[in-house]
Structures are given as C-alpha cells and as structure tokens.
Write a structure and sequence with these properties.
Elements lengths: L5 H6 L13 E3 L11 H4 L5 E3 L19 E3 L19 E3 L22 E3 L11 H8 L5 E2 L2 E2 L2 H9 L1 H42 L14 H32 L6 H21 L23 E2 L5 E6 L4 E6 L10 E5 L4 E5 L2 E4 L1
Parallel strand pairs: 1-2, 2-3, 3-4, 4-5, 5-6
Antiparallel strand pairs: 6-7, 8-13, 9-10, 11-12, 12-13
Amino acid sequence: MVRITEDLIRRRAEHNNLEISTLEEVSLHQQDIEKIEHIDKWCRDLKILYLQSNLIPKIENVGRLKKLEYINLALNNIERIENLEGCESLKKLDLTVNFVGELTSIECLCDSYNLQEIFLTGNPCVSYEGYREYVLATLPQLKRLDGKDISKSERIKAVQHFDEIKPKILEQQKEYAKQRAKEKAEAEEQERIKTAKELARKERKPGFDGRWYTDINDEDFEKRKDKGDNEEKIKEIEEENKHDEEFWDEEVPYTPESRIAVHKQREETRKKEEQKKPSGPQMIKREVRLETDDGQKMNVNEAKIPFCLSDDEENNAIVLDVGCYKYLDTSLIDVDVQPTHVKVEIKGKVGLL
C-alpha cells in the first residue's frame, strides 16, 4: 500500500521551494495511492489537487481544505460521493471512470454553492434512466455536467419531473447494489482459491522424484541431484509463466476488485524481474584510454564503425569518411578536429585518429 507521506508531497512541491504549508497545487497522480490522508492537515492552502489514476476507494480527509477549488479523482475505485461538505470553495469535481453507483450520494453537494462543474462520465450511475435530470434537479448551482452546458429550459424540465425520476433512480441503485454484492463475493472466492493454490505450490518439496537409488557413488548422486534441481527450476518457471498467461487471458468484469488484482499482478511481476537481476558487485566497464602515459594520442575505435582516410589532391585536403548508424540523430554526433588528431564521438562512444 502506497501512503501519502510528507516526503512524497515535498518532492511534488518543487515549484513551491519544497514548502508544503503554503502549497496551492499538488499532483499525486499515478502513485498507486490507496487512501487520501494527511493532506488536509499539511496543505491547508491547497486550491488544486490531482489524485487521478490511483487506487483510492473512498473520498476522505479533505474536509478541512476550505480553499480547495478543483479536485481530480478520475480513474480510481470510488463508489460514492461523500465527505466534501467542508470544501466551501469547491468549483470543479472530476470523478471520470470510477464506480459511483449510488447516485443519490450527490446530495451531499447541495450546500456546495460554488460548485459549477462535475464529471461522472464512465461511472455506472451514468447509465441510469433519468440520470442527468436527477443531477440537474438536485444540484441547481451546476453550470456544466460531463462537459456539457446546462440550459435553463433543461433545468426547469428536470425540476418538474423530479418526483417521477427519483423513485426510478432508487430502484436502479438497488439493482446495482445487488450486482456489486455478487461481484464482491465472486472476487473474494477467487482470492481464496488463488491463495490456496499459492500455498499448495509453496508447500511442494522439490528434489524427490519418487524413486530410491542404491549402490551409486557420490559423483553419480551429485549429477542426479543437480539434474533434479534444474528440472524443478524449469518446471517452476513454466508454472509461473502459465499462471501469468492465465491471469491476463481471463475475462473478468471491470470492478474495483479487478483493478486491485491487476495492480497486485504487476507488482509481483516487477518483483520477480528484480530478483532475476544478478546480485553482488556488477562488472565495471573498462575505461577507454585515449592517451599514453607520455601524452601521445592513441588510435581508438570504441564503436567499431568503418572509416576511411583518403588524400584529396585536387582540393589539397585529407578526407576522413566515418560510417554512422542508420537514422542517427545528428545531436548524438560530436566531432573535434585538431592539427594532430581527429576525435569523433557517436552515441557516447569515442573514435580517435
């Protein structure tokens, strides 16, 4: 779980000389954050808060941000709108592509008089019959909804039909709540099965192939043991690859649980890749010498590229023709011509003649 720490916010406050108490804008997007915390205590002057593309399941700990005007929570796991009553200056709320199914939760924004714009595109509630009319009638202060301007006639019509629309919204909410309960139960069952499989795989004891060997010398025994270990490692890698393929090929509904599962799978893959990297001291790159001990220039062709040195008698010049990589950007080429030598550097590799 990635936490919002003082160090994280300070690193994102370079434009404010690393001061967080007077910070007015901060971007914490794509950090895999799973909880909003501490911001309302450390950044009281915040006006703009970017938290999109995280794993946040709940709006919380922002009520003390009295100066907050815009909060972006797109692409998270939020299922209801809440805890924004204290954001007195809030003008814009972006909840694009979340999981808001409880549309009636927008009623907590009724007293947010400065609120002008909301984005709910990509949420389950958008598909409800009467969705737009319900929002317009509930929040008369809104000027734009999902990027579309609200006309006066549209709002009047929504208010007139509000008593008819609300029961329909409540019924659709109820049906969606049942669906979410089923999805959560299925996700829990899948997690239980996965945990059981992982536990069973870890408990397997490698090395015994079901046969007993007698009257063998130590050399034969070591060979068989090494062979068995290698076969076990190959089998384990094949099982892991098969598990990864099954995970990515499986068709699952787009839910908060599936987003978290994808995140965990990526983390596991990243850790496995890190474990594969060789541990211990890394091989030190050999330093290329350009001069002898007495200062004489050496012939060097670090990039091992073809070159040709020819005498142009007609123009009374010596021509050095150096072959370069195809489509090479000229910014990656540096040439230094001196009376005693020529130095050509291509993509950091030196050629000296």
